[in-house]
Design brief:
The complex is a heterodimer of chains A (293) and B (327). Chain A has 11 helices and 2 strands. With 293 residues, chain A is mainly alpha-helical. In chain A, strand 1 (132-135) and strand 2 (138-141) form a beta hairpin. In chain A, helix 2 crosses helix 9. In chain B, 77% of the residues lie in helices and 1% in strands. The chains are: A mainly alpha (293), B mainly alpha (327).
């Protein structure tokens, strides 16, 4: 039993790191653009398929797929922003309409992946040497340890970027007040495009990690990750990247520990229950800090 | 407009004539819809297509009560539909209810679920949408994790040899006409006006003596009742219920898209939207069954970008003076 709990804790941290990355990029997007990206999960799965295609066609190891995913998703996000968002901002209720529009994007992306890769579940047949390592009394697969390292590196880099560099500070300022930031001379359109591109890049990279950690993925698993992303974002407080980081880890731990004590299928209920409880009791998220409008 | 400067008599006369046009139009639309669907089985037209057309009109109209009248976007709308489907299936299968008796109960199950979800009405905008989505997920998980004797597990429930396409067709038609009648009444009634007032400015409505919580709840329960009945009838029509199809998020997606395509906030909007989109869907599906989902997604994006107010909504914006005539 103790090993099981320990296993749950370790896996919770690893999976939680991935959820934190999804949540951080999603919340950044919402904070800066006021766009609820329903298609975020499809971006993630797109990254997984990219890693799959690179590995099976070019023999490129998943770790090398990370920079490729980052660069290509950054470019895609940049393009998608200019294609979709400026017109959306003109509608009566851009926030709700963004939800609906991104739902359409999510359907279209899932369908496109279905056409390209078929409906079968895929997994990357790649293993590190050695396959697993012993940490204390338990064995953890090397892929998961590597993933954990990468998630820590990315979240540390993102936090440093947001708090220590000028563009990062501009992003945080945009989350706090979109009007005031224009007064001090920031080009909001360019900043928004950058935020969309950055969030897409993180989603793509996360997708590569998803392919490493989870047993399989298919074109329709995107919706699951979108919903987990929403839960993490709301738990952490909308538009709060640090909150999302913490909430992602908490959610991962709760989910993985739940699988120790409850049947596998019940684990998502824990997550959904957590979401509903937090929203009804403390709508500003666990940190109690709401992005100002 | 001269009526504004004139006395009360010409003004009320004008209002009466506007009202007449309004109700004539409503009766005309209702009559055309009624007669058209009535003769579908008689002339042996495509029953399946028209059954689903009526189902979507009902779903989109009920969604309109939540989204157009009350200002909530329940992205977990399918929860009511799924629960209604399972309520009917369980009542018929386990307790031996006749289907027609089970349908009101599945409507009641929808209302009950609506009451259960009522605390979420405190939330607004995107929070409400996300929580609604999560609640629909919970419903699906709870039902699929129930004991197999009740919900049939992952295989679902089969209603046996009770399928009577023509009967369920006419029941669906009755429910659709009922839904349209309720929404027509709602759009003219005190409750409907209160709902719109609360949607536009809850605090101001509260100041005017509107019981905000109660009004929102009534609107919400109306929106919860009809999808549950639709789910029940669809279960009867297809003879089988399982969690994957009963709680498919695509059901929510289609409902939202059809309602938005027509235009939220009017009685005719969801009807027009459903007719146009279901017909388009059928056309596309026949031509390219594989591309269907892709086209649906792209159509949604185009709709939001280029026609965010929907067909009827855009028309009424071009010609605001028609607002009083169009139901």
């Amino acid at each position: 039993m103790e090993t099981l709990v320990l296993n749950g804790l370790v896996n919770g941290l690893i999976v939680g790191g991935i959820y934190a990355l999804i949540g951080m990029s999603l919340t950044l997007l919402y904070g800066v653009l006021r766009v609820v990206n329903f298609a975020h999960g499809e971006f993630v799965i797109g990254g997984s398929f990219l890693a799959y295609a690179l590995f099976s066609h070019l023999g490129l190891a998943p770790l090398f797929a990370l920079p490729v995913a980052a660069a290509s998703f950054f470019a895609l996000g940049w393009g998608a922003y200019y294609l979709l968002l400026p017109r959306l901002q003109k509608s009566d209720d851009p926030e709700i309409m963004s939800f609906l529009m991104m739902y359409g994007v999510s359907l279209a992306l899932a369908a496109a992946m279905l056409l390209m890769f078929d409906a079968d579940s895929r997994s990357i047949d790649y293993s590190f040497q050695p396959i697993s390592m012993k940490i204390g009394p338990i064995y953890v697969s090397t892929a998961r340890i590597v993933t954990f390292g990468v998630t820590i590196a990315i979240s540390a880099a993102l936090t440093w970027f947001l708090f220590r560099t000028l563009p990062g500070k501009a992003l945080r300022a945009a989350i706090m007040n979109r009007e005031a930031i224009q007064i001090v001379g920031v080009d909001l359109v360019k900043l928004s495009a950058f935020a969309f591109a950055l969030a897409s890049a993180i989603a793509g990279v996360t997708g590569v990690l998803v392919a490493l950690v989870f047993p399989a993925f298919n074109p329709f698993s995107g919706a699951e990750y979108s919903i987990i992303g929403f839960i993490v974002v709301v738990l952490g407080g909308l538009g709060n990247p640090v909150g999302a980081l913490i909430a992602g880890v908490i959610y991962g731990l709760a989910e993985q520990l739940a699988t120790v004590f409850l049947p596998q299928a019940m684990a998502p209920i824990i997550g959904f229950g957590l979401l509903v409880a937090v929203i009804l009791i403390r709508p500003t998220g666990i940190l109690g800090w709401r992005a100002q409008r | 407009m001269p009526a504004d400067s004139g006395g009360t008599a010409p003004r009320s006369a004008e209002r009466a004539s506007a009202e007449r046009i309004y109700f004539t139009l409503a009766a005309l639309i209702g009559g055309v819809i009624g007669v058209y669907f009535l003769v579908v089985p008689v002339f042996d037209l495509n029953i399946a297509f028209h059954f689903y057309l009526m189902l979507w009109i009902t779903m989109a109209s009920a969604f309109n009560v939540a989204a157009g009248f009350s200002g909530y976007m329940p992205f977990g709308f399918v929860a009511f539909y799924g629960v209604g489907a399972f309520a009917t299936a369980i009542l018929v299968k386990s307790l031996g209810f006749p289907v027609l008796l089970a349908l009101p109960f599945s409507g009641a199950a929808g209302v009950l679920l609506g009451l259960l979800f009522a605390p979420t009405l405190r939330l607004s905008g995107i929070y409400f949408a996300i929580v609604s989505l999560a609640l629909a997920g919970i419903c699906r998980l709870v039902i699929s994790n129930m004991p197999e004797e009740i919900t049939g597990g992952s295989f679902g429930l089969q209603l046996g040899s009770r399928a009577q396409p023509v009967h369920s067709f006419y029941v669906m038609m009755a429910v659709m006409l009922m839904a349209l009648g309720v929404i027509l009444w709602l759009s003219r009634s005190r409750l409907g006006k209160a709902l719109r007032a609360v949607r536009d400015d809850a605090e101001a409505a509260d100041m005017m003596g509107v019981n905000v919580t109660r009004v929102r709840l009534y609107g919400w329960l109306i929106a919860a009742f009809f999808p549950a009945v639709c789910g029940g009838i669809e279960a009867w029509y297809t003879n089988v219920v399982d969690t994957e199809t009963a709680f498919n998020t695509l059901t929510t997606a289609k409902t939202v898209i059809y309602a938005v395509a027509g235009g939220l906030g009017t009685v005719t909007g969801p009807i027009v939207g459903s007719v146009v989109m279901v017909w388009l869907d059928e056309l596309i599906w026949r031509q390219f069954p594989l591309l269907n989902l892709l086209i649906l997604g792209v159509a949604t994006v185009m709709l939001v970008l280029f026609l965010p107010r929907g067909i009827v909504g855009t028309l009424l914006r071009r010609r605001p003076e028609w607002r009083r005539y169009v139901p």
